[in-house]
């Protein structure tokens, strides 16, 4: 007897309209993910105006770093809480935390208050991103998750492009404070829609909380992000501050391993590290994060200083990459859903990423802009499938009780890779500038003195030498990014392709009418 024959008219109606309810859930969580990811990018165009208003130029990088650090810490914690208590309550709390951070940032009277608001925002935003992606696994069987995760991955690309544009518009039309206040009505609307769309299947069940694991994991992630962001810039690599952070991080790793083995509900279960898909996908994600953030960080500088483009125009050259990422992410997800196969996709995409990075390593003052845009499309096409396929593959491989923390791991390793990669590439670039441009610039060579105005003030012969020096300083960055892409390519061959189920996980569906 079929399911429909065993149920009454009400159940038949619900079953018939299940796709519509699932669509509402997916639209709601995709919007929430976009809402959270915009929090990272919307402030970039307003940072100079914030500094002019609040002062504290020496702390300006913390407007970005505080959000990155807090979101990296918040993601695995929220993912685990979602596994224990259900996604709905964790998303609602995450939106609330994000909005509190927005109020603090919008009302900021000094740079310290602004950084504090960004940290609170980041903690809520990191949780929102991973729990939203975990909801996909609750409402769709593994075979159908590729398309939805492709949509989720596309939200990141969209936020990277429209975030600075929205921020710039709000700054010009109103003030920088509205970059934060605009989150409030959107957050309230998201709370209402998600309150209707989601149910909380584990409501009322109490679980032990792994406080020790949460604290130690936070220390590990904070140490990694802080060392990679401050090492070689704020403090020297051999300074007591950096060495102390490294020692703290290593000590926390040892303590974390012990704590997780003893915890009844570990925040990052050791069992995950015995799963092939978890290890391979996160290894690839770490490498891809390094390549992606390195490209985003240094290409606009090349375009402004060497090619003479305005900041706005140079920023638009990231659009081809994001267009490629969006299309490849959704396309790979569609292929995964239709064929049930996915191993070949990250292999092909990381190969394309490697080739594109090799192409970027040849950038020079006479490189045509159309060729740069073409290579950026290739970078995006190389990144997209890793984002969508990676999350769906992890969700298919981990136990249903670990869906949230498994999903969080993909975001966590990618962000750590991006943070470490950006710091390492920055050090390599600065060393290359010092080697290539020593004595040519009036204030010496380095990132802080490098601008289009500085180069334009030089005589023509010196301008040519500086442009060549900048191009040559960037070549090792993209060569290393290509090497990282090649490692990701080789790692992808180790992925064990598992069958994709056509049924929902063994837990209640979280959508309701």
From TrEMBL:
The record's keywords, sorted A to Z, are: Cell membrane, Membrane, Transmembrane, Transmembrane helix, Transport
One Gene Ontology molecular-function label: transmembrane transporter activity
Cellular component, GO, one term = plasma membrane
Q: Where is the Major facilitator superfamily (MFS) profile domain?
A: 25-500
How does this protein lie in the membrane? Multi-pass membrane protein
SUPFAM superfamilies linked: MFS general substrate transporter
What is its subcellular localisation?
A: Cell membrane
The record's annotation in PROSITE patterns points to: MFS
Q: Which InterPro entries match?
A: MFS, MFS_dom, MFS_trans_sf, Tet-R_TetA/multi-R_MdtG-like
Report the protein name in the record.
Answer: MFS transporter
Which organism is this protein's natural source?
Answer: Pelagovum pacificum
């Amino acid at each position: 007897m079929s399911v429909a024959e065993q149920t009454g008219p009400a159940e038949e109606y619900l079953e018939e309209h299940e796709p519509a309810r699932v669509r509402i859930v997916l639209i709601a969580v995709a919007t929430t993910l976009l809402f959270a990811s915009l929090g990272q990018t919307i402030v970039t165009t307003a940072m100079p105006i914030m500094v002019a208003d609040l002062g504290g130029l020496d702390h300006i990088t913390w407007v970005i770093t505080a959000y990155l650090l807090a979101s990296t810490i918040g993601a695995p914690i929220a993912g685990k809480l979602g596994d224990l208590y259900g996604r709905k309550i964790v998303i609602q709390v995450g939106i609330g935390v994000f909005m509190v951070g927005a109020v603090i940032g919008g009302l900021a009277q000094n740079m310290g208050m602004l950084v504090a608001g960004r940290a609170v925002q980041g903690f809520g935003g990191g949780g929102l991103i991973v729990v939203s992606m975990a909801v996909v696994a609750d409402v769709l069987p593994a075979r159908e998750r590729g398309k939805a995760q492709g949509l989720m991955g596309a939200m990141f690309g969209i936020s990277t492009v429209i975030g600075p544009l929205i921020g710039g518009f709000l700054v010009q039309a109103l003030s920088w404070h509205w970059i934060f206040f605009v989150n409030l009505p959107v957050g309230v609307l998201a709370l209402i829609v998600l309150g209707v769309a989601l149910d909380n299947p584990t409501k009322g069940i109490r679980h032990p909380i792994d406080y020790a694991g949460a604290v130690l994991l936070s220390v590990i992630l904070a140490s990694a992000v802080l060392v990679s962001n401050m090492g070689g810039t704020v403090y020297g690599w051999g300074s007591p501050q950096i060495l102390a952070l490294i020692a703290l991080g290593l000590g926390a790793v040892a303590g974390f391993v012990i704590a997780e083995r003893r915890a009844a509900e570990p925040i990052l279960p050791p069992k995950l590290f015995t799963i092939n898909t978890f290890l391979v996908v996160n290894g690839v994600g770490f490498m891809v994060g390094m390549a992606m953030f390195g490209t985003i960080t240094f290409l606009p500088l090349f375009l402004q200083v060497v090619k003479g483009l305005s900041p706005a125009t140079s920023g638009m050259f990231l659009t081809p990459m994001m267009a490629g990422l969006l299309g490849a992410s959704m396309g790979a997800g569609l292929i995964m859903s239709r064929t049930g196969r996915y191993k070949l996709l990250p292999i092909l995409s990381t190969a394309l990423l490697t080739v594109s990075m090799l192409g970027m390593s040849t950038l020079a003052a006479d490189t045509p802009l159309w060729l740069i845009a073409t290579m950026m499309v290739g970078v995006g096409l190389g990144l997209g499938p890793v984002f969508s396929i990676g999350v769906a593959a992890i969700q298919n491989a981990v136990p249903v009780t670990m869906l949230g923390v498994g999903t969080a791991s993909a975001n966590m390793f990618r962000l750590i890779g991006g943070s470490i990669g950006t710091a390492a590439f920055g050090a390599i670039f600065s060393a290359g500038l010092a080697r290539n441009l020593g004595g040519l610039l009036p204030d010496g060579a380095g990132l802080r003195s490098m601008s289009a105005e500085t180069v334009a003030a030089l005589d023509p012969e010196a301008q040519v030498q500086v442009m060549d020096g900048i191009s040559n300083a960037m070549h090792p960055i993209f060569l290393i990014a290509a090497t990282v892409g090649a490692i990701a390519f080789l790692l992808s061959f180790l992925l064990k392709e598992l069958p994709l189920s056509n049924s929902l996980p063994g837990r209640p569906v979280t959508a309701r009418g």
